[in-house]
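Ticket #635: bound-state structure for WTA.
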Amino acid sequence: MSHYHLDTAESYKKAYQESLENPEAFWAGIAKDNFLWQKPWDKTFDWDQKNTEVKWFAGGKLNITENLLDRHLVHNGDKTAIIFEPNDLDESPQKISYSDLAKSVNKMANVLKDQGVGKGDRVCIYLPMIPELAIAVLACARIGAIHSVVFAGFSSTALAARINDCDCTLVITSDGGFRGAKTIDLKNIVDQALEDCPGIQKTLVVARTNQKINMVPGRDFWLKPLFDQASDHCPPTIMDAEDPLFILYTSGSTGKPKGMVHTCGGYMVYTAYTFKNVFQYTEQDIYWCSADIGWITGHSYILYGPLANGATTVMFEGVPSYPDFGRFWAIIEKYKITQFYTAPTAIRALAKESLDFVTPYDLSSLKVLGTVGEPINEEAWQWYFNHIGQGKVPIVDTWWQTETGGVMIAPLPGITRAIPTYATLPLPGIQPVLLDEQGNEIKTPEGSGLLFIKHPWPSIARTIWGDHQRYVQTYFGAQKDKYMTGDGATRDAQGNYRITGRVDDVIIVSGHNLGTAPIEDAINEHELVAESAVIGVPHPIKGNSLFGFIILKNSFENEVSLKNQINQSIVQHIGPIAKLDEMVFTPGLPKTRSGKIMRRILRNIAQKNFDALGDTSTLLNPEIVKDLIAMMQKK
Ligand code: WTA
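RESOLUTION: The complex was predicted; output attached.
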């Protein structure tokens, strides 16, 4: 008997215990009873520790879209699968039923096939939050093509790097996108990117903004005529549970972004199971996650998890501030949203505005509020709880990562205890441990250390596309038998976890993971820059802001213009999300004798915590610290 639905504290405890004692039997039960498999798997779990290869349900055959779509058509074809809420209020929303979504996905799948896309091919999707994005993702899954969705806020250089890294052959994009009062020229960005992407043979273009764009004959095709002609029947390609489903890029602390690879079977089982339980989803619910499908949260908890459960999921094209700061709350009232899932940065930004943007709306439909992406501070948690949850709706602070595929540590709403700023308890199947700096496990209930996970769970990313060695090094390099999260955490006497933040050179800005290395590379592209170091400084809304210490080659005339140029270089190489909030020009950077930049010192200097600098005499260039302090005192 499997415990698909954890509806009491006892059932959680029992499931957790069983998952500890026998992870294989636990996940086999969940996977067998709740999903459609074309053929049962040969082996539930396989972990080759020597080569760091994890497999779940290998030999099992399935197509995830049969689980997301086809199987619901029997009884629920008319049920709304996706509610599309456009950016502009004067455009009508769309309610797309399961049967209409299935038809569109089949049509799109046939379009892709006609363009020569087949199983295992990589398709880059660079689209705004419109229904075609969901349809494109699922169409890839239908034919076994591997989708690589790139967030439509990334620049052409960042897009090209992602297209080339996994050798995509086709891009799906749109003429443009609406975001608040702005229009984004997506096709232009794609055109620029494709100058450096010889592998791309075709692009399919969705007409969204109807702005003027350039169509390259023989390469660029409008989607609509192809889509309209395509048959709405496309038999699902049968996949092995361990075949890749998608690649999603995430920032690393060094080097180029990491293309995390998720596979069909384990990802499906884990995202469906966690969606059901973390949101306590029931059939009548209307669920909304405000993330973008360009990030893992959108993959797992706008599309895969909710649709696997036959849920109604909302896709919102716009931003929380447009046309005013009440937009989120208006949407909750409009659709009677039962579960709402967003990021702390959005909560903090909206909490700063007047309550007059909140109080006009009826939020009584809400049953669960979720947060994800970064630690939520006590003040934001309380505001969310009191003003959005009206003091009674449970909050689930969900900790997880692109690499983990689904939520790992979170309370179960109304079932286990929520504690502000704590992600609290691990979900069944997840075995967190804290290690000290020496790598020893902290055995006492209370403690602080580096967060590792002991036993692989079904949706752990299997590799980094094209670079398994980097995967091994990054996640299993410190401990051969434990996954390293890169986060620090503390644990209380009851076993509740509080995530304290990244311990590596990844900075989370407005919920987006940014590696310092690519930002520094972009800064160094400027002809006047010799070297730079970027650090995160706590910021009341964004969580962290970006502060750059920059060494110039020559003197310069106009500081404001130079700063703008440097930010322009960042926008060009990465995107506006990585722009520096502050920068100082310095004659040097504090370095260890082995030449490593001492970021801890820079972090304290940027925050003017001059007393916290500690002993700097062992630095290669201790005198620079005085210069930096003097510079900051003038600021
Ligand atoms: C951070 C997002 C504290 C963490 C799903 C992690 C969190 C990184 C939380 C992954 C949370 C995510 N509390 N920190 N509830 N959720 N994080 O890959 O540092 O975009 O390592 O995945 O976000 O970010 P990613």
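RESOLUTION NOTES: The chain has three domains: 9-64+265-502, 91-240, 506-634.
TICKET STATUS: resolved
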